[in-house]
């Protein structure tokens, strides 16, 4: 695996966290346009469907953001340059702070990702599988059905 493939995959993982924390769900849909997103519900595929999932699920506050910080750590990337595919495993910890809510972790879990390199040489998400294993107070982060 080349350093550039490793860095490209890490950058995609970091970009996901930035977009969620910025409340940029259109950007998130674009980032995952070619991917299947698998969370706690049915798998979702396609830019518009993924954008809608996040808009319907994540609470956005007065500043236009969820007031979160997604911290991604312990990232392990494996790539097959010949096939143009890669996988990554990482941990995620979600922190949140709001007026009246001190900074605290609200969720933690794992990401299992698959990536593909397109003909233009750029890497893209093919699948993001989110498994939350520790859950705190998400009442100001997620809408309940």
How are the secondary structure elements laid out?
Blueprint: H1 3-22, H2 25-31, E1 36-38, E2 44-45, H3 47-57, E3 68-80, E4 85-98, E5 101-117, E6 123-135
Parallel strand pairs: 1-6
Antiparallel strand pairs: 1-2, 3-4, 4-5, 5-6
Helix pairs in contact: 1-2, 2-3
Radius of gyration from the alpha-carbon trace, in angstroms: 15 Å
Question: Helices and strands: which structural class?
Answer: alpha+beta
Task: Note the total helix count.
Answer: 3
Mean pLDDT figure: 95
Q: Mind telling me which CATH architecture this is?
A: Roll
Q: Strand percentage, roughly?
A: 35-45%
For the sheet with most strands, the description reads: 6 strands, mixed
CATH class division: Alpha Beta
Strand count? 6
Morphology call: globular
- SSE pattern: HHEEHEEEE
Note poorly predicted spans: none
Strand order of the largest sheet: 2-1-6-5-4-3
Q: What is the terminal separation in angstroms?
A: 43 Å
Number of domains: 1
Brief summary:
With about 140 residues, the chain is α+β, with helices and mostly antiparallel strands. It has 3 helices and 6 strands; from the N terminus they run H-H-E-E-H-E-E-E-E.
């Amino acid at each position: 695996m080349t350093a550039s493939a490793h860095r490209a995959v890490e950058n995609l993982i970091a970009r996901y966290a930035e977009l969620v924390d910025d409340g940029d769900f259109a950007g998130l849909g674009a980032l995952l346009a070619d991917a299947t997103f698998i969370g706690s519900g049915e798998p979702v595929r396609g830019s518009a469907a993924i954008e809608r999932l996040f808009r319907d699920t994540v609470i956005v506050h007065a500043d236009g953001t969820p007031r979160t910080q997604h911290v991604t750590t312990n990232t392990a990337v494996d790539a097959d340059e010949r096939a143009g595919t890669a996988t990554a495993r990482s941990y995620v910890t979600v922190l949140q702070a709001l007026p009246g809510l001190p900074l605290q972790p609200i969720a933690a879990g794992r990401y299992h990702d698959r990536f593909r390199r397109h003909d233009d040489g750029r890497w893209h998400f093919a699948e993001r599988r989110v498994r939350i294993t520790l859950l705190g107070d998400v009442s100001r982060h997620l809408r309940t059905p």
